Amino acid sequence: MKDQYSTVEFDATAIRSWFATQLAKIAQTLKNSEKKSQEVGASGELALSALIDNLDREVNKLVNEKFRFLIIGDFNRGKSSILNVLFGKELLPMGVTATTSIPTVVKYGKEQKVNVVVHKKDGTEENLSLEGYKNKYTLNSKDVKDKIKRIYNSVVGGWLKDLDYADFYCPVDLLSKGVEFIDTAGLNHTDDEDMKTLAYIPECHAIFFVLSAEQQLTAKEKEYLNKHIKDKIGTVFFLINKWELLEESDKEEVHNTFVDGLSECLQIEQSEVEKMWGYSVFDVYAQTALKRLAEQKHLDGTGFIEFNRRLNKFLIHERLTAELLPSVQIATSVKHQVVKLIDERLLILNETVKSLEEKIKKVNPYIDVMERIVKSLKEGTQIQKNACIIEVLGKYESYFAQVLNKIDNDFVMPSVSGLKDNQKEDYKKILEKKFQEYQQEKLNGWEQISQGIVTKTILELTNLFQEESNEYEKKRREIQEILSGKDYNSHMPKQSTYETNSTGETSLKVINASAAGKMILAGGGAAVGTVTAGVGAAYIANLAGAHILLGTIGTSLVLTPIGWGLLAVSAAGGGLAAWWGRRSEIEKFQRGMKEQIKKGLKTILEPDKLLGIQEKVGTLFVGFENCTKELKDDIESLKNSLNNLLESKKKKEFDSIAEATRLQELKANIYTQWEDIDAKYAEIATAKSK
């Protein structure tokens, strides 16, 4: 039942559910047909089990997928308050001090109360009530405050170090529709905690970056925007909260301050920033909204109505279209294969047992060629995948090892000449900026290297799949012609030029990069109406840009200059001016800073980073592997369908006219169901372009 206080309706969840239902209908239609095909008077199964399995997997994926939103921001910005507004009631802990001590994943729970499961780093779990969690783990509870008094500086680093994250299970209608929120600790935590927050970004559909009208873009917020958010701006919504705490006369000035700050951080004109209001920037009044919810009043004027409207459009037209594409491709592939199997069955429905056996005998050599093609594709994909992983890992390690070896010469510390006592912070900013520029330069260099490796491999495989899928479809058409009665005895298929050779290696041609690029963008990887539609334009276009993901490994490096401690100790006697004049102290300080920089860079060569790269490279080949499996399934369906018909003819007589009518009706039903899916997706995609 819909929560009477719920203020947010995500239309995207209903759309995802609709596609799941439609795919389930196709699967059920095929299941019913296979069952009827075994009845008296029917011609036997079409061998559709692989297609049904594909549909069931996609339905399961759609049903279980979640829209995830990451809530980030500095302490006391009202992150939990904003979530409570979206839920329509106060569920998450709120307070005037920092409350969310560890990342909190807010999920749907069926019980009529909030249950909390705290996950610890040793793999154990702790089940708590909401009240128990508030008392034990939120940073404004009495117990925690007592611990802070006793342990003070070590409380977050020590007391919370064994905790990983918490799951909140809440009986909220919005969450029951496949929506989850990740509420995080503030940005001024330790570097490790900050990195934990940022690690959630790839898992989320959108980021809610919460700011405060009271404190307009602090240094820490600007740093986060520059380092971690700026390149993800297309998925970020800035929610500027706490406007109710300002005087009306101050609001215009505060607005202008935000325009200036965002213009600087995002490096765009102020006029462009102004256009972001109502699109990706929203002024929200969370406390006012919560008060109105408690009084069961409307939320007009709080900013949440406008934000919800824009978020729905974003989810449907900018995220859901990409997510639903595999579902449409599967439906298209299923429709094509079912129609093909039915057409082939209709061609031979009236054959005698003897004539059918003769046609199957003629077809078998063509099936053998198709099987060799699939084997070639499978082995070729595996060889290229392994080679790409080895090359990427090798180049990655050698490149960054070389960066570390050359850093003493390549990275020149900013000059300290002429600095005065009050210029320590200026020097710190200069050093951090210089290091960020140096780091970005090296990452850009790696991106170019990884781009070359990945693009070369993907283009080679794309060309292989293009040529072999054309050959496969040619054999498929020739089989249909044989079944229709054409004589192919004088044109027996030759051995495929794409077969694996005796050494077990696959010959992969290197093709013209420019031509291949055009083919990829045009979706040339899949001939129209073929089983290879699953490895079409959108998928291959995404693969072509996948090297960018590799280039981002390591961008989360943070300069943690312990060297400032050396500066502070050295400058304690005589002031900074005296310190700057002692060459030995300057060299000691700079060595300390460089060691910190080296330490940060070394982390990108740790085993877990290398494993992450290996896994990421491996995912680039999933589409090719899936396409190969579809071709294999197509062959098995063809062989089994032919054999099923033959066995049916041997065992019993069946009504050919009634069976032809049944198969034609199945064909029409599948086509109509596919048309509904295709039309719905086209409607969404067309609306996006308007």
Question: What does it look like?
Answer:
It contains 24 helices and nine strands. The protein is α/β, with parallel strands linked by helices. The protein has a nine-stranded mixed beta sheet. The model is unreliable at 1-6, 95-99, 147-157 and 489-580 (pLDDT under 50).
Strand content: 5-15%
Side-by-side strand order of the widest sheet: 4-3-5-2-6-1-7-8-9
* Oligomeric form: single chain
Global outline = globular
- Rg, Cα atoms, Å: 31 Å
Query: Between the first and last Cα atoms, what is the distance in angstroms?
Result: 34 Å
Query: Low-confidence stretches at least 5 residues in length (pLDDT < 50)?
Result: 1-6, 95-99, 147-157, 489-580
- The count of strands amounts to 9
Fraction of residues in helix: 55-70%
Mean pLDDT: 77
Count of DSSP helices? 24
Structural class: alpha/beta
Summarize the main sheet. 9 strands, mixed
